[in-house]
Amino acid sequence: MEMVFETADLSKNYISVSDEVKRYIMDRRCDFRVCTSCGGPIILSTMVKPAKSSDLEIPVGDYTLYISVYQARYIDRIDMNMVPKYSDYF
Q1: Contact at 8 Å (CB) between 82 and 68?
Q2: This model's pTM is above 0.70
Q3: What is the percent of the chain where pLDDT is above 70?
Q4: Which member of 38, 52, 54, 83 has the greatest number of CB atoms within 10 A?
Q5: Span 10-64, pLDDT tens digits
Q6: CA-to-CA distance for 44 and 6, rounded, in angstroms?
Q7: Starting at the edge strand that comes first in sequence, how are the strands of the sheet with 32-37 ordered?
Q8: Strands, DSSP E only, in the chain?
Q9: What does the alpha-carbon distance between residue 48 and residue 51 come to, in Å, rounded to a whole number?
């Protein structure tokens, strides 16, 4: 059986990124990805969770914030609540 997914216009114009998240990405000098976790959407470095070809891309300075197409359907804002609290220990 073939799985069919409905598609929607998921352009970056519909998803805002908070200034705090932009600063977080630029301070760490690497690309990040919004992906799925058991607790909801989470922002991880692409060194931990690599980007996929289906991800949306939002430029943040010299870096890219990738967004899982599955998460992009349900979010309209990316904020610091998506950053794991333990990430500052790395």
Answers
A1: no
A2: yes
A3: 81
A4: 83
A5: 444 579 999 999 999 999 999 999 999 988 999 999 999 999 999 999 999 999 9
A6: 26
A7: 40-45, 32-37, 63-67, 56-60
A8: 16-17, 32-37, 40-45, 56-60, 63-67, 77-78
A9: 10
